[in-house]
Design brief:
This protein is an all-alpha fold and 158 residues long. It has seven helices and no strands. Helix 1 packs antiparallel against helix 2 and helix 2 packs across helix 3. The longest helix has 29 residues. Belongs to the sigma-70 factor family. ECF subfamily.
């Protein structure tokens, strides 16, 4: 058994469960685990003096961080139709206006309460706790409504 196979068989479950604590969707978690082990495989020769566990879990943290960073950029773009702040990105004004119009139309299709909670949380930056208190419901109920809105918007904007 080569060193990579040994590392993979020893750590695959631990890595998956570590990643799964931070990433909700199974497919995203599985993709991330694959990316982590691809990184380890590429750098296995360079890392022979460093314990594999240190490299694996440092890579896990980096991949999780990258995942959140990417989704945050995507999420910001989806919500407000703003372009990421990368200098290479260009976005003409008519396309921007079209995207904003599409977003507004989609928001109108949401149930009124879902739309209201979504805007309060994402635009007005009101916390789940505060929304739950104001609406006399649980934070879980607020979370479900906002996730419902996000799923709808993401599914219909592309």
């Amino acid at each position: 058994m080569d060193p990579f196979e040994k590392i993979y068989s020893e750590y695959k479950h631990r890595v998956y469960f570590f990643v799964k604590k931070y990433i909700q969707k199974d497919e995203d978690a599985e993709d991330m685990v694959q990316d982590i082990f691809m990184h380890v495989w590429k750098h296995i020769d360079k890392t022979t003096q460093i314990p594999p566990e240190a490299i694996i879990f440092k890579t896990c943290k980096q991949e999780i961080s990258n995942f959140y960073r990417k989704n945050k950029l995507s999420f910001i773009f989806t919500e407000s139709e703003m372009v990421s702040t990368e200098e290479n990105d260009t976005f003409d004004e008519s396309s921007r206006e079209e995207q904003i119009s599409r977003l507004e139309n989609l928001l109108e299709k949401l149930p009124q309460k879902t739309k209201q909670l979504f805007i309060q949380h994402k635009v007005e930056n009101i916390s789940y706790s505060q929304l739950a208190k104001e609406n006399n419901v649980s934070k879980t109920a607020i979370s479900k409504q906002i996730n419902k809105a996000l799923t709808f918007l993401r599914g219909n904007l592309h």
